[in-house]
Amino acid sequence: MNRREFVNWMGAGVLATSLPVAIAACQPNTADAPADDPAATDESAAVDEGPREDGFESIGTVSELDEAGSLSSSNFQGTQVVVTRDPNNADAVVAVDSLCTHQGCTVDWDGGAFACPCHGSNFNVDGSIASGPASSPLPVYEAKIEGDQVLVKV
C-alpha cells in the first residue's frame, strides 16, 4: 500500500467514525428540558410544526410573547420575523420582517418601535420608517392570536 492509498483509507475512516456524532447532534434533546416544562412530557402542548392549510404557523405562545415583549425567529418560513403586541390594540399582534431594509441587520423591538442596532434606523410598529438611513419600510405579515398560540402568515 502506498502513501496515497493509506491517506485515502484514513480519511474515509475518519469520515465514517464521525457520521454517527453528526447525526446525533442534529436530533432534538428533550433530556435537557426542565421537569416542569409541559412540552418535555406532553407532545400535544408543543408548538405546532409547519404551516397550517390557511398558511398561518405558530411562532410561540401568548405567555411567551407577554413575558419577553416580543417573539422572533431567524428562520420562520424562510425569513426572519419579529412579533409584538400592537400598542394601539392590546388584543392584536403585529409581525414584521426583522431584517433592516438599509443593510440587513436584525432589528429589535425596544418597547415602542423597531430599532436597528447597526446604523440607527427606527421603524414604527406598522413597519413604516420613523428615522433613517433606511429608505424602505419593513415588510409586514399577517398575524393573530388563536387560543394560546401566536400565529403568523408569511
Structure overview:
This protein is α+β, with helices and mostly antiparallel strands and 154 residues long. It has helices at residues 3-25, 38-41, 62-68; strands at residues 57-61, 71-76, 79-86, 89-97, 108-109, 114-115, 122-123, 129-131, 140-146, 149-153. The strands form 2 sheets. The protein has a 6-stranded antiparallel sheet with strand order 1-10-9-4-3-2. A 4-stranded antiparallel sheet has the order 5-6-7-8, with no helix packed on it. It starts with a helix and ends with a strand. Residues 37-47 have low confidence and may be disordered.
Question: For the CA atoms, what is the radius of gyration?
Answer: 22 Å
Measured by DSSP, the beta-strand proportion falls in 25-35%
In this structure, how is the largest beta sheet organized? 6 strands, antiparallel
Helix content: 10-25%
H/I helix tally: 3
Show unreliable segments. 37-47
Provide mean pLDDT, rounded.
Answer: 76
Per the principal axes of the C-alpha atoms, what is the gross shape? Answer: elongated
Our measurement of the CA-to-CA distance between the termini, rounded to an integer number of angstroms, reads: 58 Å
Can you count the beta strands?
10
